[in-house]
C-alpha cells in the first residue's frame, strides 16, 4: 500500500510506515531482468537499515505483518530475512522476546564471512596455492609499508608482544598463535580497514594447512628472526625496508606452503 505525501497514517507503527509495497511489472514482462519479490523486500529493508531509518536493536514486525505491508507471501518475506541475516544485518531470536532484530555488520563479521568462503574455495581447489600466495604478498607487503609510516608506540608494543621471547620452548600450536597475532598486528597497525578485512582470510587459509605440517625448530627460529627484522624496520619508520622484510619473509614461507599442499593432496588421494 503506497501512501501519498501528506496522507500518512500516523497511528500506524513507525516501522510499518517506512515500508513500500513490492513493485510488480504490469502486462508483458520486458526483456530485462525483473528483480524477484524477495530481492525487492531485502533491498528495501537493507536501504532502511543502512540509512539509519531502522536502528540497531530495533525489532521488525512479524512475518505476517511484513507480508501484508509489502503485498507478498510470508515465504517471500522469510527468504528476504534469510538474505539479510546472512549479511549480518538481522539477527533472529526465539522465545517470548523472539523476532528479527536489526544489527550492523562489523569488520570481524565481514572478515569471518570471507574467511569461511575462501576456505571452501581452497578445499574445493577452485583457488590455487599460487593465487593465495600472490594475494597475500599484494596485501601484506603494502600493509608493512603503511605500518612503518603510521606506527605509534602502542602499535610497536603490540608487535613486540607478538614475538615470543623463548620460541623454542613453545609447542607448534602456541607458535602459530603468536604468528597469527603478529601478522594481525601488522595489518591493524597499517590503519586501513579494508586491508584488514581482505588480508585476514587469506592468511587464515594458508595458515590452516601449514599448521598441519611437521615443522622443525629451524622454521620457528627463522620466523621469529624475520618478525624481529620487520618490527625494527617499522619502528625506524623505514617504509621500503619494512615492505622488503615482509616480502622476504613471505618468500621464505613459499616452499613450506608447497610441501603442506603436496601433503594435503596425497592425503586426499588416499582417502
Give a verbal description of the structure.
By secondary structure, this protein is an all-alpha fold. The chain folds into two domains: 14-102, Arc Repressor Mutant, subunit A (Orthogonal Bundle); 108-270, GntR ligand-binding domain-like (Four Helix Bundle (Hemerythrin (Met), subunit A)), CATH 1.20.120. Helix content is 65%, strand content 3%. It has eleven helices and two strands, in the order ααααββααααααα. A two-stranded antiparallel sheet has the order 1-2. Strand 1 and strand 2 (99-102) form a beta hairpin. Helix 2 (37-50) crosses helix 4 (74-86), helix 6 (129-150) runs antiparallel to helix 11 (239-270) and helix 8 runs antiparallel to helix 9. The chain is elongated, with a radius of gyration of 25 Å. The protein starts with 13 loop residues before the first helix and ends with a helix. The relative contact order is 0.09. Mean pLDDT is 86; it is low at 1-7.
Strand order of the largest sheet: 1-2
Please summarize the sheet with the most strands. 2 strands, antiparallel
Q: What proportion of the residues form beta strands (DSSP E)?
A: under 5%
**How many DSSP-defined strands?**
2
Give the rounded overall mean pLDDT.
86
Fraction of residues in helix: 55-70%
Query: What is the CATH level 1 assignment of the largest domain?
Result: Mainly Alpha
Q: Rg from C-alpha positions?
A: 25 Å
Briefly note the structural class of the backbone: mainly alpha
Output the helix-strand order. HHHHEEHHHHHHH
**Fourth-level CATH superfamily of the largest domain:** GntR ligand-binding domain-like
CATH architecture verdict of the largest domain: Up-down Bundle
Form type: elongated
CATH fold field value of the largest domain: Four Helix Bundle (Hemerythrin (Met), subunit A)
